Amino acid sequence: MKNVIWYKLGHLFLILLFLSCKIGPEPDQELKALEGEVEILPPDELYGDLFFDAQTKELYDDSKTFVDVVPQYNVGLIRQRYNMLDDTTAESISEFIDQHFVVPGNDFEFKTDSSSIKLHIRKLWGVLKRPADDRISGTLIPLPNPYIVPGGRFREIYYWDSYFTMLGLMEDGEIETIRNMVDNFAYLINEYGFIPNGNRTYYLGRSQPPFFAMMVKVLAEAEGEKVLSDYLPELEREYNFWMDGSTELNENAFRRVVKMKDGEIPEKAVVKNPDRTKEEVYRNLRAGAESGWDFSSRWLNKDENGKFDLSTIHTTDIIPVDLNSLLYNLEMTIAQAADLTGDESKANEFRKKAESRKKAIIKYHWNGEAGYFLDYNFRENEMTERFSLAGVYPLFFEIANQQQADLVAAKIEEVFLQPGGVVTSPYNTGEQWDAPNGWAPLQWLAIEGLRNYGRNELASEISSRWLKLNKDVYQRTYKMLEKYNVEDLSKESGGGEYPTQDGFGWTNGVYQKLSSE
Prior knowledge:
Shape: globular
Distance between the termini: 28 Å
Helix content: 40-55%
Oligomer: single chain
Number of strands: 18
């Protein structure tokens, strides 16, 4: 989920968003400033040779462990002392790290008891809460207010996780925590121009699915609609980040925007070079991470044996249906906030943008033959053939019409519905955002999307199956997991670059929300 984007309808062109992460941050985001005596740098620059030696010698089972270490004193001095070290065997380096850093372990050990699952989650909010950071420690970016982390190896706040976490915080009356988290994200937007994947220096090169507008709406539900206008400047800044370059777009694709002709799309020769550069592969991996779906058949081709393989990843060719649905919601939220401030001109401008994007989503993502919303490969000028639960986003944000929603509901029942809820995709690829796994955020989006169009019976069936699975696993393990196997309820989830984590922020949030109904 957290390891290693997305388009506008003009007079002649449709501009849609796709996933295209650069290898590193923009020049003005290369944070080489000093704060007191502490350097704000990504880990490779912060720790120098020590970083490369620790990672290449694989001192830790989890590659995230070393980049999360906390220096015990000035990093510059630690680097100097390491450069003087004669013995650079794995054992010696490990001993050096133990002497000069606090190495993170599992910070989320929770003493289990016979509490009900809902009480367990209420207790977990305190376990998962982190205080405001008054100083930089290693790669952790300070935040001005307390916040909730997901759990397990994820020791920092994560962007899109936090919306689903807030659903449960809302049910449990943790309004102050929600306000603090929204303020933290507003701080990040104002400080860096966007919301990073998480508050780590190594995440400053990418974001995650833009759910900030939905978080603001959760807070507005508790504190009143004025909240929307309070965060209007940050909503606009985030929008500008995603749409950067759209007004000067001369080429087909630039950063995260793609210009699509509003009419017949010309054919293009697509060069399939088997000898891809490392930079190409890394860029596509980072783009997959920015999508939140790291990794998934959505971003993969099949190899010569007809199997999905991570080496074929081509995320930057894809216009994702979920990202563009999120941007539609952001445009509509900005319009609503502008109305509250009395700025009629801005409100009308963003309503027009939203309507244009809605048309683009229907044009490029709706596949009538399949009866489903699919991603679009703009390099090959055609929809992908990959079914995934990203196709429920147009229902969640009420972009689809009733006929389309009915067809999507039929497809969910036919392809996605499993004994434990809905599966992420019908493809068993070994990647974690595919079968047999189910994820809390996608259950919520599917359930709410179906409810928006009166498909309450199917929504209730998904909800009851998911809640029963969560409860059954909890009764066996006293854990709330990051993801679940929804196909074979006797087995654990799997796939991906790391073991299934417990904690777990967004699972807790969705469970509290659904079970309260």
